[in-house]
Amino acid sequence: MTEEKEDDRRAAEHGRGSLTQSAGYAPGMDEMEQAKHDAAERAAALVEDGMRLGLGTGSTVALLLPALARRGLTSLRCVATSPATERLASGLGLRLETLDELGGLDLAIDGADQVAADGWLVKGGGGAHTREKIVAAAAARFVVMVSPDKMVARLAPPVPLEVLAFGAGATLAALAPAALRPDTAPSPDGNLIADFRGPVDVPAALAARLDATPGIVEHGLFAPGMVSEVVVGVGSPV
Q1: Which of 10, 138, 184, 211 is deepest in the core (most CB within 10 A)?
Q2: pLDDT per position as a tens digit, 78-118
Q3: 228-238: per-residue pLDDT in tens?
Q4: Minimum mean pLDDT among 25-34, 141-150, 168-177: which range?
């Protein structure tokens, strides 16, 4: 399952109720779930009061937000990358503004679907990768938080795509094997979500190919130069 597939369900599970948990752990939680909590707690500790903070999207971000709320940073200003993150952050009392209002960001924190040994990421399982990439690029520091199962030797398909509806069939045919993701809501900005399912042997070359394809709004490959730090959570065997 991708990092970002369960936004709304995880927001409900790990929202307000998590404010009472000092470390976020619960009885019966498996090792990878504990590791996600650990990564979220450690990432939250990097945030300083007064920062302009970019908030990503996904199940680990749904754990980050209550960890941030527990810290009581009264001057923190945040921008959310999806409606799901916006709803949860607002419900926890975090101050939200638009990216244009903030101008730039001191820090952005997000999860990932895959983190390769060479530093390349795949993101976008939840379809918010365009906004996530904009926010990451606007930040002086971009921190990625993951559980150990997201660490891979090499990237593998699928690579998420955000696609314009106009001419979508032709766009995807030019990138075969690529297809619309079934039963998937549009992106936060109303575009279609698809996946490239071909090889990812040379991420830089694939990223250049995707960037050059008309109709592709954005893809889920994040270059190593965008990432300042990867926080890998630690879990204890149950």
Answers
A1: 10
A2: 999 999 999 999 999 999 999 999 999 999 999 999 999 99
A3: 999 999 987 55
A4: 25-34
CA within 13 Å, CB half, 166: 3
DSSP code string of the chain: --TTTTHHHHHHHSSGGGGG-SS---TT--HHHHHHHHHHHHHHTT--TT-EEEE--SHHHHHHHHHHHHHT-TT-EEEESSHHHHHHHHHTT--B--HHHH-SBSEEEE--SEEETTS-EE--TTS-HHHHHHHHHHBS-EEEEE-GGGEESS--S-EEEEE-STTHHHHHHTTSSEEEPTT-PPPTTS-EEEEE-S--SSHHHHHHHHHTSTTEEEESEE-GGG-SEEEE------
Q: Beta 77-80 vs 121-122: how paired, if at all?
A: unpaired
Q: Is the omega angle on the peptide bond into residue 182 within 30 degrees of 0, that is, cis?
A: no
Q: Quick one: 238 exposed, middle or buried, by C-beta within 10 A (0-12, 13-18, 19+)? A: exposed
Output the CA–CA distances (angstroms, integers) from residue 163 to 58, 61, 70, 193, in the order listed: 20, 24, 38, 6
Beta strands at 192-196 and 178-180: parallel, antiparallel or unpaired: antiparallel
